[in-house]
Amino acid sequence: MPKVVSRSAVSSSTDAQPTASSAAALRVYYCICGEFILVIDKSLAALPRRKTDNAIVVRSQDTDVAKARIFKLNVTVNEPIFLERQGGHEKQYRFNCPRCSLPIGYQPTPPPIKSGPFVYILPGALTQMQGQIPPDAFEDAESRP
């Protein structure tokens, strides 16, 4: 007689109220090369932009004023670079795609990722459709760092 390893039953109801986890839609973003890069709890288009370079601001730590975004990045972190900004210099730890090394974003604090209050995603670096170039990929390419 065959041995029964496990048994399971699935039950669902159309009358059930949605739970917090089912209502929370996660967004997935890819590099232009098709590599999975980011999963986040809110659309990148709905997040604020940084004035200095138009990068998307992702809050990575809770404060008294706002909660951190829930997100996971699949990137490689490089050595820091220094950029000349109005009024001084800025140190950035750049994130690159693990497959094609395209710049994805940065944070001002040393690794690990989410070690500082914000993570910044470069405009035009990510797309929601694999193999599709985002519409803002080539906008202001000359003015980027």
From TrEMBL:
Residue intervals of the STEEP1 domain: 21-135
GO terms, biological process: endoplasmic reticulum membrane organization; endoplasmic reticulum to Golgi vesicle-mediated transport
PANTHER family attached to this UniProt entry: STING ER EXIT PROTEIN (PTHR46355:SF1), UPF0428 PROTEIN CXORF56 (PTHR46355)
GO annotation, cellular component aspect: cytoplasm
InterPro entries hit by this protein: STEEP-like (IPR029704), STEEP1_dom (IPR057965)
Protein name: STEEP1 domain-containing protein
Pfam family, one: STEEP1
